[in-house]
């Protein structure tokens, strides 16, 4: 039992954070805060346009500000973008916000889920596979260090993943 604290979902692109959060929302009735949506709303621009027009650093700054702005009034589900763990101050904030659950998936699953990579600014390179594998290698230790719980979603549907989170953490509606 997590004592009514929020759940923070972290993990690489394609691990299903947003979809899992929507299932979890239905299962436990907690509201969802999604940092990518908050950033897009604050700048009135879709995330890919923020990357292409303003650059990754600006996006990262907005991501930090979005995390600071989240003030849950009760237990909530917080969904982060895949790079939220890049800034140490974000990790401190995530851990302050709640139980940090990291969704993972094996390479073959990620390849499948991230193809095509149309909405993923960081995979817009000549070889998206290489870009993905490099980012994953760099980030894996950061995800592990930030997480209270790691959950491999490779052979789970988003609903099964949400159910597994609910059971592992004994969440009640
Ligand atoms: C990013 C992941 C994206 C989004 C942005 C940067 C990353 O979110 O925040 O494109 O650095 O991995 P998803 O993990 O929801 O795709």
Give an overview of the whole structure.
The protein has 173 residues and is an alpha/beta fold. It is built from eight helices and five strands, in the order βαβαααβαβααβα. The two termini are 12 Å apart. 35% of the residues are buried. The structure holds shikimate-3-phosphate (S3P). Residues 13, 17, 36, 47, 81-83, 120-122 line the site of shikimate-3-phosphate.
In a nutshell, what does this entry contain?
With 173 residues, this protein is α/β, with parallel strands linked by helices. The protein has helices at 17-28, 35-43, 47-54, 56-69, 88-97, 107-113, 128-146, 158-168; strands spanning 6-11, 32-34, 77-79, 98-104, 149-152. Helix 1 (17-28) crosses helix 8 (158-168), helix 2 packs across helix 4 (56-69) and helix 3 crosses helix 4.
Q: Helices and strands, in N-to-C order?
A: EHEHHHEHEHHEH
List bound small molecules: shikimate-3-phosphate
Nearest-integer average pLDDT = 94
Form type = globular
Largest sheet report: 5 strands, parallel
Lateral strand order in the biggest sheet: 2-3-1-4-5
The end-to-end span amounts to 12 Å
Helix/strand/pairing category: alpha/beta
Helical segment tally? 8
> Low-confidence runs (pLDDT<50, min 5 residues)?
none
Tell me the total number of β-strands.
5
Question: Beta-sheet strand percentage?
Answer: 5-15%
- Helicity, in percent? 40-55%
> What is the rounded Rg?
15 Å
């Amino acid at each position: 039992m997590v004592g009514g604290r929020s759940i923070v979902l972290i993990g690489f692109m394609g691990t299903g954070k947003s979809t899992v959060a929507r299932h979890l929302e239905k299962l436990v009735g907690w509201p969802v805060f999604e940092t990518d949506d908050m950033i897009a709303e604050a700048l009135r621009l879709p995330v890919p346009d923020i990357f292409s027009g303003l650059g990754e650093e600006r996006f990262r700054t907005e991501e930090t500000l979005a995390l600071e702005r989240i003030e849950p009034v009760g237990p909530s589900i917080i969904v982060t973008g895949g790079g939220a763990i890049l800034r140490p101050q974000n990790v401190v904030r995530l851990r302050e916000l709640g139980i940090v659950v990291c969704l993972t998936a094996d390479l073959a699953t990620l390849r499948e889920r991230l193809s095509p990579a149309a909405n993923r600014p960081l995979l817009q390179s000549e070889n998206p596979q290489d870009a993905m594998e490099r980012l994953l290698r760099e980030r894996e230790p950061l995800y592990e260090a930030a997480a209270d719980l790691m959950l491999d979603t490779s052979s789970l549907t988003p609903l099964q993943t949400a159910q597994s989170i609910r059971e592992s953490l004994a969440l009640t509606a």
